[in-house]
Amino acid sequence: MTTSTITQTNTQKIRITFLMRSAQGGGAERVTIALANQLAAKGYHIDFIFIQAVGPFLQDIDHRIHVIDLGVRRTLLAPVKLYQQLKRHRPDVLISALNYINIMAIMACRCLKGKRPKTMITEHGTLSAVLESLRGTGKLVPMLMQRCYPFADRIIAVSHGVADDLAQQLQLSPQQIQTIYNPMDFDKIFSKKNIPLNHPWVNCGIPLILGAGRLVEVKNFPLLIAAFERVRAQQACRLVIIGEGEKRTELETQIQSSAYAQDIALLGFSDNPYQWMAAANLFVLSSRTEGLPTVLIEALLCGTQVISTDCPYGPREILQDGQFGSLVPVDDVAALAAEMLKKLQHTSAPQIDLTTLAQRFGQDSITLQYEQEIQQLCSGATA
């Protein structure tokens, strides 16, 4: 299907429902809402179902989108309410994100009688990386994924690495999984990064290092703090981390015990991280695993030098094997500190081809890819 065949008439006839747990501050939530907004702007009828309609990204949802709050505190209690909503609204396509939500989406659709919504499930992370950390009922997730995912009409992975990992872990054919990168709103990033940032650490002559993301285990912010301490021992610099999460208390304890606590700031969630990216001398991603870390793309667009752990998966794809930023081994504090010190002492803005980035990650290009999949599903075409 070509661009010309996606007409306003086609879009108005298609009803799409998105499903997510919440609108809390994570990358998957942000990009899924951005995709829903893009499709709403193109004329599709969009409903957005949340298990719990809470979180800072709710304010970003387009006014044309109908938000449905299941109001369920525990995800395990949500399937019945989801089934009722799908039965009532009968969307043409159901798009979900994150594995346990994907399982719920497939099962709810399979239970419907008559015409069922086409299911498009999206994977934003690597299953192999979280297997050992699964607890309680979470241990059932891989088995349920293996049983349910073959019944999805489309399986979308946000990077080639995620696609390969999913195929291997679930014993799926690679042909059953398609890769579509996360959509990035370049204009929004360029606009918001230029808003003046009022903070005493900005433009004060002391180099600023930035980390951003959910304060959770896989993001490995303790590694970033430990590497910063080594760098700070050799030259003046400061570290800012923006984001919220379950590891905040542990990180605060680590910072308080640091000899350089006065040079480390844990600032919480920011609705405009691009100001900080533009102000920083260096952006560092210290994760143990990723899917497609959009913060790396955002930092590049803000003209910031970038270092990332060479974790599975995404950073190497984004940075083109180190062409646009440095890659260091995972969990190697010495290597990370050495590269951070090198970048601070030899400052140079990354040379980025914006046209190429727009083709790979721009929201217009990515939204078109989703539109083509949606139109094919609704026309009965195969992948």
Poorly predicted spans: none
Main β-sheet description: 7 strands, parallel
| CATH second-level architecture of the largest domain | 3-Layer(aba) Sandwich
Can you tell me the CATH topology of the largest domain? Rossmann fold
Helix and strand sequence:
HEHEEHEHEHHEHEHEHEHEHEHEHEHHH
Task: Estimate the strand proportion.
Answer: 15-25%
Helix fraction bin: 40-55%
Name the strands of the widest sheet in spatial order: 3-2-1-4-5-6-7
CA-based shape: globular
CATH hierarchy class name of the largest domain: Alpha Beta
Q: Helix- and strand-based class?
A: alpha/beta
Radius of gyration: 21 Å
CATH superfamily heading of the largest domain: Glycogen Phosphorylase B
How much is the average pLDDT? 92
| Oligomer category | single chain
Number of strands: 13
Specify the number of helices. Answer: 16
How many angstroms does the end-to-end distance come to?
11 Å
Outline the structure in words:
It is a single chain. This protein has 383 residues and is an alpha/beta fold. It folds into two domains: 3-183 and 362-379, Rossmann fold (3-Layer(aba) Sandwich), CATH 3.40.50; 186-357, 3-Layer(aba) Sandwich (Rossmann fold). 40% of the residues lie in helices and 16% in strands. The protein has helices at residues 8-12, 27-41, 78-89, 99-111, 127-130, 141-148, 160-170, 186-193, 221-232, 248-256, 273-279, 294-301, 315-318, 333-345, 354-361, 363-379, and strands at 15-20, 45-50, 66-69, 93-97, 118-123, 154-157, 177-179, 208-212, 238-242, 264-268, 282-285, 305-309, 326-328. Strands 3-2-1-4-5-6-7 form a seven-stranded parallel beta sheet, sandwiched between helices. It has a six-stranded parallel beta sheet with strand order 10-9-8-11-12-13, with helices on both faces. It starts with 7 loop residues before the first helix and ends with a helix. The model has no long low-confidence stretch (mean pLDDT 92).
